[in-house]
Structures
1.
Amino acid sequence: MSTAGKVIKCKAAIVFEAKGPFKIVEIEVAPPKAHEVRIKILASGICRTDDHAQDGEIKVSYPVIAGHEAIGIVESIGEGVTCVKPGDKVIPLCVPQCGRCPPCKNPEGNMCEKSDFLPAKGLMYDGTSRFSHKGKIVHNFFSTSTFTEYTVVHEDAVVKVDPAAPIEKAVLIGCGFSTGYGAATKTAKVRPGSTCAVFGLGGVGLSVVIGCKTSGASRIIGIDINKAKFPTAKELGATECISPLDFKKPINEVLHDMTDGKGVDYSFEVIGHTDTMAAALASCNKNYGVSVMVGAPPSAADMTISPTLIFTGRTWKGSLFGGLKTKDDIPNLVLGVIEKKFNLDPLVTHVLPFEKINEGFELLHKGQSIRTVLKM
Ligand code: CND
Ligand code: ZN
Ligand code: ZN
């Protein structure tokens, strides 16, 4: 029996307050309004950004349904939707692409003005939510909300992908892989023969490693305090891996020593700490080095750096979703997975049923997983 036009009751993981657990409860998901799409989520990956939504490091509105890296099937569409139809395999977009605003029109831009972060309101364009629990509204997260069996997104925040997309791998195209791969290939534009340093070897950092290798970097130095990440980093293309805990010197000095005093050509901070952002910046060549901030800074953080670090010529860039344009680039990245251009197998260390979401976050906290994929 068709569910189109009806309220759907289903399971979702709600965080009711900052630092509270993910509670699986029954919610009501209203039908999509005009230009909205209701999606049955098939799988959702656990990204550190969801952890930041739960612990309050990133400002969100509670109660909230987090999750922003997913793949699903269109259940129904609202009036006027033409980009997808029921039954299509889709990826929800945590960075929408409306196609009309200045960042969408600028070839170098991608932070669509319809994006919902910094600060996140957690509501649809009309200021309401399609989610409710016991009659009270529940907010959405980063235009997506994927820790639920059904979600509703605006048509700007969904893209059709090839039906052959393998869900347990292609799910990572919704955030982690695209963010890391794009940071290397689009934001930094890593050149063949260069030396790269990647700070943080989680799902996103390892995807930076893949991007550096694809770009032809000849040295890729992985940096992490958790040495359990090193074998996977090497499998994916890191030529050396080091832990800052093994050195008395600051890690930026170690990287200068490793490169005959030159510093690396490109550095990437993929952790989200201000001290490692500063270290990554100082690690690259003082004149032509490029440092890319990929890790999400805590909402409340400030940092101070010496202006000399930039004055001598360094470039310091941020990278949101790898600088990629979601609607344009995601279908091609999914094809890359189908055609085995990218091997994402080593990134997916755990596949768990949705109900075990808290276990998935525990694995992340203990440093025992790279990506956990929850299957609905
Ligand atoms: P995950 O937690 O899996 O990886 C972080 C890695 O950093 C872990 O392996 C840690 O052991 C390591 N680490 C922690 N502290 C240090 C340290 N002091 N020195 C060296 N290594 C350390 O996280 P993830 O890969 O899912 O995400 C990484 C960051 O990227 C995180 O901040 C997340 O919020 C952010 C992000 C950004 C974007 C974007 O669009 N820019 C999209 N998604 C995620
Ligand atoms: Zn993410
Ligand atoms: Zn836009």
2.
Amino acid sequence: MPDLIIDTDTGSDDAVALVMALRHPSARVSAITTVAGNVPLDLATQNALYTVALCGAGTPVYAGRHAPLLRPLFTGQHVHGADGMGDIGLPLSGRVAAPGHAVDVIIDTCTRRPGEITLVTLGPLTNIALALLREPALAQVVRQCVVMGGASDGYGNVSPVAEFNIWADPEAARIVFDSGMPLTMAGWDVSRQDAVIDRNEAAQLRAIGTPLAEFCIDIQAALLRYLTEHTGLNGFDLPDPIALAIAIDPLIASEVLDVPVLIDTSDGLCRGQTVLDVRRALRQHPVVRVVRRADRARFIAMLEAALR
Ligand code: RIB
Ligand code: CA
């Protein structure tokens, strides 16, 4: 089973992914690293620390980059709530991150343990890009990198064609996707098709009755309001949890396409678009494993087991 480093901008769906990883009987989380995205860095770090404590885990949380490589930070607080966790009044402050910078921890852990670490990225790719810039050999020593990001069908959430994690820091995404690191991309299309939890299912999951079950459902309050109003989804979707689930159990990726993925780093309409070069028109880009569909039943089973 994989040994994970999870890089997260700890919003309400990230937190569910952290619970799934920390509670999985045979996954090991060596470190959690935080990055600005859904919320500013300090909130992402506090939210991750809160979630680790709620799971009774001792996993270290290291803070990383407070902003994208080149662009100003635009958060997703209008989606996930000002605190990123549904604004339901959780005591999300006052915890202390582990000493050390996320980028150094990613480099040191992966180079000390070549071939052992799976990176799972749940937010903008700023920390991973910086690690690759500082230590290009990282691309050769990482077992694999599973990215929640992009949209293989061109249907975006933050813009007509771009998904938030890539749109937030497209330069970082281009560095990561062009690095040659063994990369699996689970885009928003996978979440929208195979990881939407409707109100009835949310009630059933919450009825498991554990503190973790109530936490994982209640913190989706702001997301549910936003999605209902802006996307017409019948419930909330869980993009980070399904990407995490694929990292732990690759069989959940039921349909994949191995293809180069190019990132639009312009400032125009297509900023942050993930373009699949199916025809191989541009030969110098490495191939990425793009997940197109997921085994929803297998994913829900892992989620339910984590909440019990
Ligand atoms: O577009 C969805 C992604 O953006 C998820 O990772 C969500 O947490 C936000 O970071
Ligand atoms: Ca996220």
3.
Amino acid sequence: MTKARTALVIGSGVAGLVAAVRASTTHQVTLITKTALGEGASIYAQGGIAAALFNGDSARIHADDTVRIGGGLNSRRAVDILCTEGPMRVRDLIDLGVAFDRDGGELARGLEAAHSRDRIVHAGGDRTGAEVQAVLVAAARKSRVQILEHVFVEELIIDANRVVGAVLMYPNGIVESLEADAVVLATGGGGQLYPHTSNPAVSTGDGVALALRAGAALRDLEFYQFHPTTLAMPGNFLISEAVRGEGAVLVDSSGHRFMTDEHPDAELAPRDIVARGIARRTAAQGGAAVLLDATALGAAFLKRRFPGITAATAHLGLDWLNNPIPVTPAAHYWMGGVRTDEWGRTSIPGLFAVGEVASTGVHGANRLASNSLLEGLVFGWRCVDALAEPWPDDAEPALGAIAEEPQVDPSEPVDRASLQSLMWSTAGLFRDEKSLTEAATQLARWYVAAPPASATSIAAVAAAETRNLLDLARVIVASARMRRESRGAHFRSDFPHADPTFARHADLARKAVTKC
Ligand code: SIN
């Protein structure tokens, strides 16, 4: 009897669940998640899923919108795949039981910034991620997938330049290696790099850090998207762009609708423009938050269309039905990550990456709203077709440490809050040479210090996550220093315009992370 092929899927958001469930028909699959199944950023996705499902729209128009916003760095081939296969993956979800919202029997559709068509399908009003995730979790539980919850992946195991498994830490502190024919990273993003983020606590960039240490090629690391409107309160609860899509406006402390001064599309300008507009206006009014006013939409509509936001704001003591609410930008989505081809294949044979951990090239320098669940669905599905295929020979050379490492002495142990605060002030919405140099120097000082010893597995996981964040901060800062221009979400105050020299994928991550 031939031995069944094995696959490890690391991460249990939408991309990981789709990959695991589909792969379980051909592989013996183990799905590993560091928390409970289904936790992660996917469940917080409010706006919905963008897909060309309606008359008057097409995959080409959706792809054109995606590329227009991506600052010239998208891979058109990957974008075409995303937009062509997206509608099929949404129909799969409907078949699986996701109850997308309907309007007179037809799928309801929303609008978000920079879309030229209303094409965002949503479920539970503003609970799309949670609704989709619940259905996929149920499918995973019914499938043959072996599920390991509360298990942390410490390292990938590489042998002869091929991934052959992973080192796992169990809740009881036991560390064990698990072999596999293929490993799929689906660990999501790294919002915890910043103190203000719409991402949950688990978003510590683990998959990108694992791939970095294993020597995989990374890409577009300097492009971190800041969502314009999260509540300007601890926790930064997301206020969906769909709220502005329905007509809510942003006003400053004198009641002026300031985004009309910044861009013809005002509140529905590309996310980076709205986020920087809000940040500048907040600074100009001495730090007082700007306000999002949705009251003109009417209480009945807001309650029906945005039940999650209505409940969350009420819980926090805000009455958004009748009053404007304070908002601020927060780290939301990392366009960069582990470089993949259109099958999710990384530069290391056997290693795949899907969802936010990956850089498929679909987002370029800036992600179009509601393309992220879509990316997880499409590429989570596609990678399964390549799981058992021979690896193409164009693998990148293995990579190692960071170029231009500042020489520092003495070293200091890192703590997560200091790291986040440094990233916010030096490599956040606005960066320049001075701030990035300061960041690189401090990060190097932290990097040379030994990671703190941990007495328990919980503390060990927290320390390992912080170490991952530190590794990632270094490559983000190194990439941001090299990109001496502004493009998409990467805004350099000292180089405020796009420079055609950087128009193509300059592949700065490759230069930022060089062989030791
Ligand atoms: C939102 O609902 O504003 C977030 C959607 C997204 O990031 O695509």
4.
Amino acid sequence: MKIVSIVGARPQFIKAAMVSKQLREIHEEILVHTGQHYDKDLSDIFFQELSLPNPEYNLGVGSMSHASQTARMMMGIEEVLVGEKPDWILVYGDTNSTIGGALTAAKLNIPVAHVEAGPRMYDRSIPEEVNRIITDHISTLLFAPTQISVDNLRKEGIEDGVFLTGDVMLDSFRKFSRVAEQKSTILDELGLQSKGYLLATVHRARNTDIEENLRSIVEAFLSCDETIVFSVHPRTDKCLKKYGLFETLFRAPNLVLISPLGYLDSLMLTRNAHKILTDSGGLQKEAYFSKVPCITLDESTGWPETLEDGWNILVGSNQDKIVAAVNDFSPQGKQRNVFGDGETGKIIVEVLSNDMPISNTLNLI
Ligand code: UD1
Ligand code: UDP
């Protein structure tokens, strides 16, 4: 088969790397980079570290409003699909690159396979939630990472073509944690001791674009006693500077501001953190995999399993709640095997390769 895979943003490079290699052993894969992320530390470094093949096409779309960005992606992807005539299009996660790929393929009657189908935050003001819902409703194969994702899809009437596969991010976490241990020198570079710091990332629109929320998060960080290593996403960098918050953070004795990390350094800092402060979906899962307490700077999560097991707590952007969690949140609970066995990439390729008809019943592996 010929399969066109669409990637464009940081988390998609990580997810695609776990599928692409195995896919190429059996099928022809055409990798399309939309160009949504283009900085070296948000894009190139992931291709190098995860040995993701160079994209056959880079659409170079760049940053702009949601509609303009998605429209430009769709125009570029349409041209690729019309020329390549693939049997499937494979999309990942919930970004504008995901919906751009899925919608374009659906209009050309090319079946869509969606990796990470089904998580819901039940809040349509979140751009990623809209992307997920639409992508899931126009997909033929839906690779759900968790049972809760399967249940969410069922509630929306989607049962055909749903496979419970586990989460590809567990595959990459397991595989690259070992590599990170050998290669990453980030702890030494930053002068950090294992468990001697908190790791923070912030990039959700609600936390960056609403000044009051970003200010509240910054105030919370400033009033913590522990060292906070803050990997600053370019979107956040822009907003911190716009609201006049960057200098204060930069000068604060307990803050270590760093540019976005490569995957290996990110894994190393995650696994050795005392706690994680984040609004990233991926980092919430990696904190759970690492058994590091996660303080989520959001009102809801696509990963309620991590809350149920007690390893994650939702604090939104509320300064008092953030500080209280930094001081007091110390989970000890047992973890369940809710994200699969780290073989999700293999399962996805097997399902895609099977010429099995999409049955009328829910397909659970
Ligand atoms: C996007 C995804 C989000 C995902 C995140 C992963 C959408 C709607 N959002 O958010 O789901 O969690 O990626 O990191 O698809 N910028 C740069 N350099 C880059 C890319 C972006 O400077 O290489 C800056 C630009 O100012 C841009 C801003 O970051 O306007 C936001 O980028 P964008 O891709 O629109 O959204 P993210 O916040 O990165
Ligand atoms: N990540 C990274 N460097 C960083 C921050 C994050 O490599 O500085 C990795 C990390 O593994 C995370 C993934 O990128 O799980 C996706 O992160 P992001 O927060 O950008 O996206 P989300 O998961 O929220 O969609």
